[in-house]
Amino acid sequence: MAIKQQRKKYSGAKHDRERTMNKMIISVGKVLEEKGYTGLTVSNISKCAGVDRKLVTMYFGSVEKLIEAYFMGKDYWSPATIGAMEFFGNTQKSGSRELLESLLLTQLILLQKNRELQKIVAWQISERSELMAHVAREREKMLALFFTFADREHREKDLDLRAISAILLSGINYLVLHSVNTNSTICEIDVSTKEGMDRIRAAVSKILEWTYSAR
After folding, report:
1. pTM above 0.85?
2. 8 Å CB contact between 101 and 205
3. What are the φ/ψ torsions at residue 189 (nearest 5 degrees)?
4. From the CB of residue 11, how many other CB atoms can be counted at a distance below 10 Å?
5. Has residue 141 got a pLDDT over 90?
6. What stretches of the chain show up as alpha helix (H) in DSSP?
7. Exposed e or buried b for every residue in 42-72, given b needs 16+ CB within 10 A?
8. In 79-106, which positions are buried (b, 16+ CB within 10 angstroms) versus exposed (e)?
9. For 37, which DSSP code?
């Protein structure tokens, strides 16, 4: 009987540890969304999780390892990737222009709705970080699907879709971050409104139309 009770106690302690670790990992996302990447401190994360700050080091070794555990379990780009794969399954009807437009506009929608992703993009361009490099590499895997498809379509055409895509993607990221962090217009367009975002979507489509019609 004593042996059974000891095993039960050990199992409970193990589950408590796992639950606490999970609470701490989840709290990284909550702090990131509320305070940005500069707020990812031991004090803020442990307070959000409602645990002793010493547990960060005890369970993860360091706050950096805790933050790493959070990001390694995230996939920010799967919705856009799934949309891209749907286009791949319908290549007779859709070419690389439609695919690129889908990827860019999906990114626009995702970034507009996801405050955590907004913080991630801001972090990526603010300081060098191996964690952010990992997130960026996941994005590049998604884009590699598109470029593989587009290269077959435009072998004989002098069209640098990589450079054009980089400019459009960077512009989308900046426009969204600008709209959520300021109360000002950009080029007299209020990107925080539906009308403003509709104009941006139409402009992306028009730029791609010009790009693909160029010889």
Report:
1. no
2. yes
3. -115, 130
4. 10
5. no
6. 2-35, 42-49, 54-60, 63-72, 78-88, 96-113, 115-124, 130-153, 161-181, 194-213
7. eebbbebbebebebbeebbeebeebbbbbbe
8. ebbebbeebeeeeeebebbebbbbbbbb
9. G
The values of phi and psi at residue 44, to 5°, are: -70, -40
What digits encode the pLDDT tens for the residues 67-126?
A: 988 887 776 666 666 655 665 565 555 678 888 888 888 889 888 888 888 988 888 888
CA dihedral 126, 44, 28, 117 (to 10 degrees): -40
- Asked if 143 and 137 touch (Cβ cutoff 8 Å), the reply is no
Amino acid at 79: P
Structure tokens belonging to residue 112: 């507009």
